[in-house]
Design brief:
alpha+beta; ten-stranded mixed sheet; 4 helices; 10 strands; 16% helix; AlgH-like; YqgE/AlgH family protein
Length: 186
C-alpha cells in the first residue's frame, strides 16, 4: 500500500493499535485543514448522547451531535454540503464545506430548509501542531486515506465507518474488523 501524505479533505483512520486512546480509538477523522503550521479535523464516527435541540433549545430538531475531537469541546462546529445556502463557508474538498454563517444555519433549520442529511454538527475538533501529526504518522497511529465517500460523509452511518475502512484496507487490517474494542476482552 502506498502511504499518502495528509492533505485537506483526506481521512485519518486510527490504527487498531491505538486502542488505549479514549479520544481516537477506532476514529475516522476528516482533515478540514492541513498546512505547514498544523492540522484541524473532525471525528466523523463518535456520537454524543444529546442532540442539537439539547444545546440550542430554539432549534427543535433532534439532529445528532458528534464528538469532533478533544480540542475546544465547548464550541459547536459543522460541515455541510450546501454552500449556496450558508454564506462564508469554506470548501474542504469534494463538495464538503466547513462552517459559515451560523445565523443563516439556524434560520434554515427553523424554516425546515436544512435537513440533517445536509449538515453534520460537532462539539470540539481534533488539532495537531506543525509536526505533531507527522510524528503520529511516523509512530503508526494513523493511516491516511483519500475520501471516497465525497459528500456522503454527512449521511454515512457512523457505527460501521471504522470497520468498513479496515475492510477496505484489507490484509493485516482484516483481523481487526470483528475484534472487540479492547483486545483484552477477546
Amino acid at each position: 500500500m502506498i502511504a499518502l501524505k495528509p492533505a485537506k479533505g483526506h481521512l485519518l483512520v486510527a490504527e487498531p493499535t491505538i486502542f488505549g486512546d479514549v479520544a481516537f480509538n477506532r476514529s475516522v477523522v476528516l482533515l478540514a485543514n492541513h498546512s505547514d503550521t498544523g492540522s484541524v479535523g473532525f471525528i466523523l464516527n463518535k456520537i454524543h448522547e444529546f442532540t442539537l435541540r439539547d444545546l440550542i433549545p430554539e432549534l427543535q430538531v433532534p439532529y445528532k451531535i458528534y464528538n469532533g475531537g478533544p480540542v475546544e469541546q465547548d464550541n459547536l462546529y459543522f460541515i455541510h454540503k450546501v454552500p449556496e445556502l450558508i454564506p462564508d463557508s469554506v470548501e474542504i474538498a469534494s463538495g464538503i464545506y466547513w462552517g459559515g454563517n451560523f445565523e443563516a444555519v439556524k434560520e434554515l433549520i427553523i424554516k425546515g430548509l436544512l435537513p440533517e442529511n445536509q449538515i453534520k454538527f460537532f462539539l470540539g475538533y481534533s488539532g495537531w501542531d506543525a509536526d505533531q501529526l507527522n510524528a503520529e504518522l511516523d509512530s503508526h497511529s494513523w493511516i491516511v486515506t483519500t475520501n471516497e465517500e465525497s459528500t456522503n460523509l454527512i449521511e454515512r452511518p457512523y457505527r460501521s465507518f471504522w470497520k468498513d475502512k479496515m475492510l477496505q484496507l484489507g490484509g493485516e487490517y482484516l483481523l481487526w474488523c470483528n475484534a472487540p474494542e479492547n483486545p483484552s476482552y477477546n
